[in-house]
Amino acid sequence: MSRLVPVPRPSVRVRAPGKVNLALCVGAPREDGYHPLVTIFQAVSLVEDLELTTTPEGSGISLAVSGLHAEAVPTDATNLAWRAVELVAARLGVEPDVRIDIVKGVPVGGGMAGGSADAAAALVAADHLWDGGLPRDELHGLAAELGSDVPFGLLGHTAVGTGRGHLLTPAMTRGDLHWAFATRTRGLSTPAVFRAFDEHVGGPDELAPDDVAPLMAALRRGDAVAVGAALRNDLQAASLALAPELAETIEVAEGAGSLGAIVSGSGPTVAALARSRQHALAICAAWTAAGVADDVHTATGPVAGARVVTAV
Ligand code: C5P
After folding, report:
1. What sequence ranges are listed for the domain GHMP kinase C-terminal (predicted)?
2. Domains of the chain by range and CATH?
3. Which residues line ligand 1 (CB under 6 A)?
4. CA pair distance 183, 308, nearest whole angstrom
5. I need a surface site. Which of 24, 119, 134, 176 has the fewest CB within 10 A?
6. Which ligand 1 atom sits nearest the alpha carbon of residue 116?
């Protein structure tokens, strides 16, 4: 009797979201150089679509990127999605003969974790393509190896992140939040922003998780006004030190009546909370008229984490 060898599927398409940090509380760096965080992530409707297609035996991995600022994304083994496919293949003991096609909808290098979303999508897609059936916590472990924001790309919705940002607890929320995002072509390097934070600001040795309690309560009530008032990003001063032009982007959003406007993650994307989708569009129009953004987007949150959208 011949042994059953699992046949890979022809292709799998997975969608994963970008994120905004509603709160980002940053402590003093640990011995490994990472900063302890207490953060509240929200997944938003700017998404990455990633398709894995089985290619002939021995062809290895190839990767192509299209969509929003695709030219800025590496298409070699340094791409997090490529590394994610390698990790799952090694874990399952299969040869990774696949083409990875990414359609970007999350601004590149903007502090919205687009690369992390690709990695999360690639983990889910590879597991599905090869029928790996890896348990969720195992995928989560691989995600944490790839980067601090990758586990949240798997989970989606709204969650509290601790540790490096990779230890997640889902947060209760009510209703949708409407966002406007102002992006810049010139990105900010996350390590450089953390270094500037250490130099100019400096985090406490102990973070107080209670700091985010008012924000959590506002999310539970679905009170967008209170959410806007409680938005917080400890990295913002460091991002503004490296990119002072972002201050005007925040001021214009506030002038357009945003409920709160902050730098997203390490920036340079600015996130403004709006009262409605129409209001988010009005904030985008104000940014465009003032010439304080290279591109603008609206989105809603929360949305789901990485999930299979088609498989054949
Ligand atoms: O984990 P990830 O590779 O995404 O992090 C990118 C960089 O961001 C790290 O090399 C580090 O400089 C910085 N970082 C940090 N503290 C965190 C997360 C990221 O200092 N909690």
Report:
1. 215-291
2. 11-170 (3.30.230.10), 177-301 (3.30.70.890)
3. 34-35, 37, 147-149, 164-165, 190-191, 194
4. 28
5. 176
6. 4
